[in-house]
Design goal:
Length: 304
């Protein structure tokens, strides 16, 4: 008679003693989802509020005068027409305005990048008597409203004999206090040790600035380029006191004349808004090209 011996049952695995992943309570997760949805909804509404005027601008520029006056807020023109753009480029001084703005903006942007970086480096690195006073004056200039300086600016431009010229339009804008302030702060974030090797090799102050420090300041330079381009392209008050020759009219002065009705009769909404839409394109393109490279104040130190 054979006896069958059964194997003992396998022992159940021991429960894990370590702490497992913690899960947020269902109520908390639900509240978090509602809060996120509410936040995105608010941001969406704000974005629509900001972009709606531009969409109305573009849509109205393709309407007829009658439709624009009858239904100015419509986003879809009933009759699409490019008559406003044709008139701007073929039967007005708009190309001259655009060219003048482009010339001034390019020279002012290049000048601000060069002079702001030079002045910022001098305030950040060079030891000279009165440096603190110069920096205090720089901060004081930033606090003064630009409109207060219009009459003194006109007097200086007139005395220098550069009124009604490209020189009068560009030279007073070649440096700005805010740009110098930005460059000074960025240069101070770069360790001094990165310049010591160049000085040991016999490089002078300008050589160190141009070949060693300035390439490391690319984020700040891109910030200056964007701000300078936008500021000089949209400048109006300075051009009012610097020129009166119609051949030197910039886009801002020309579009302001259109908006005030000096150059046309009736509402002329499509014409005015077409000019405004074209005027925004260069600044928008410049910003979207460089928005990811706007100043990171830690990059200079990291490269050191």
């Amino acid at each position: 008679m054979s006896v069958t011996v059964q194997d003992p049952p396998a022992a159940a695995p021991a429960p894990a003693t370590g702490p497992g992943p913690r899960r947020a309570p269902a109520g908390r997760r639900g509240r978090g989802s509602v809060a996120s949805a509410f936040l995105y909804a608010v941001l969406t509404v704000i974005a629509i509020i900001y972009i709606a005027p531009f969409l109305i601008d573009v849509a109205t520029s393709f309407k007829t005068d009658a439709e624009a006056a009858r239904d100015p807020l419509s986003l879809v023109p009933q009759t699409w027409t490019s008559a406003a753009y044709e008139r701007l480029f073929l039967n007005s001084d708009f190309p001259t305005w655009f060219a003048n703005s482009a010339v001034v903006t390019v020279f002012v942007t290049m000048g601000r990048v060069f002079f702001n970086s030079l002045a910022g480096y001098a305030l950040a690195r060079l030891q000279f008597r009165g440096r603190g006073l110069v920096f205090a004056a720089l901060v004081a200039v930033m606090a003064v409203p630009s409109v207060v300086l219009l009459i003194p600016k006109f007097l200086v431009i007139n005395q220098l004999g550069i009124y009604d010229s490209y020189a009068g339009m560009t030279i007073p804008l070649l440096a700005d206090a805010a740009g110098v302030f930005i460059m000074k702060n960025f240069f101070e974030s770069i360790p001094v040790s990165v310049e010591e090797q160049a000085r040991i090799d016999g490089a002078g102050t300008f050589r160190v600035f141009w070949s060693v420090v300035l390439p490391m300041a690319r984020p700040a330079l891109i910030t200056i380029i964007i701000l300078s381009f936008q500021g000089s392209w949209n400048e109006l008050a300075h051009f009012i006191v610097a020129t009166q020759d119609p051949a030197l009219t910039t886009l801002t002065k020309g579009v302001a004349s259109l908006a005030s009705g000096q150059l046309s009769q009736g509402t002329q909404y499509p014409l005015k808004l077409a000019a405004a839409a074209i005027m925004t394109i260069p600044v928008a393109v410049m910003f979207f090209l460089f928005q990811k490279r706007i100043m990171n104040t830690t990059e200079g130190a990291e490269k050191g």
